[in-house]
Description:
mainly alpha
Amino acid sequence: MSSLSRDEVANLARLARIEMSDEELVSLASEFTVILEAVARVQEVAGADVAPTSHPLPLRNVFRPDVTTPSLTPEEALSGAPASEEQRFRVPQILGEEA
Length: 99
């Protein structure tokens, strides 16, 4: 069983520059003991035959393959536009921008 003494918790608090009262140090020592026991139980379960993962479910690529397909020519794309210029849609000027 892993545990931390009051003095070890005091040293950790000093390193972290956290001021703690004697009651807090004793209380935190017992809380650390519970945490360390829980970690020890997890380490018992995780065996060498279990591969480490970053996600609980298997991840897979959900994107389709990038395949080139025929598309509209610039003239076809602009055929329904009210105005075009240099193979681009022409839109009204906004916000007082200069042309």
